[in-house]
Amino acid sequence: MSNPAGMASTPQGAEGADQVPRRPLGHTGERVSAIGLGGFHLGKPELPEAESLRIIRAAIDGGITFLDNSWDYNGGQSEIRMGKALRDGYRRRAFLMTKIDGRDRNTAARQIEESLRRLETDRIDLLQFHEVIRMSDPERIFAAGGAMEAALDARQAGKIRYIGFTGHKSPEIHLRMLELAAGHRFRFDTVQMPLNVMDAHYDSFGGRVLPVLVRDGIGVLGMKPMGDHIILDSKTVSPEECLRYAMSLPTSVVITGCDSMPILEQALDAARTFRPMDASEIDTLLAKTAQAARRGHYELYKTTHTFDSTVHNPHWLG
Prior knowledge:
By secondary structure, the protein is of the alpha/beta class. Helix content is 38%, strand content 14%. The protein has helices spanning 49-61, 77-85, 105-118, 137-142, 147-156, 171-183, 205-208, 210-216, 239-248, 261-272, 279-293, 300-303, 309-312; strands at residues 22-24, 31-33, 35-37, 66-67, 95-100, 124-129, 160-166, 190-194, 219-223, 253-256.
């Protein structure tokens, strides 16, 4: 059983016990909130736009600075709503991240421009290559005429500040992406991956990728702390335990979806009251989840195509 949480967590900053702590974003010199607001849920059709905007602004007012999004979330509605919410001075208070699916230069460049327009900004703080879930993705991104060229062009033009990648399928693919980057003498600023109480037991990103990121000073973006609520269906852990465990890892930020004000308040409270788990607490928690975690039953993003939006929409890749 892998136990990535054996490494010391980034300590709480000087924000105070009643505020959301800030953490270093790898080697960038930026500091971001320990909890980040996921973008997917904010654009769901069943969530009224006015409520979505209320959640985004309440998150920023509550101390969350890191905002997650993607070009493909809800047909662009997640970005459009976030752009509206960031009016009236909210944009300058947020560290804004979005993702693109394009694997070739032209497709990626078009998606960057569309994201900028929807988000109503002239600069995205962090752009990430989304869903690096096939072993062929790293080669396509770094190939001549590939998406990396578009990202570097955008950074040179001041349209983006930092570059990262995301994926939820396999640690092996993440390691290949990092290996290929090193071969091109490129260091990613961030890497996003699932980090949760189930991942610790099965094909673990925390066990295999996390130590590499810490060693290389790359910002760690933890996602799926509750596996899109599927982990909670195991009846082995509470939402608070899920968030506290993920924050106890050496993460820069743990991104969680919030589609209501009570869920947002739950995340804010977890961050404001955060105390790192010690080794005995971690062992006890992982013992509770060990049986359920076998074969990835509660990590469908690893074991099925349920969460693979670019598999269902391959034309997004270009």
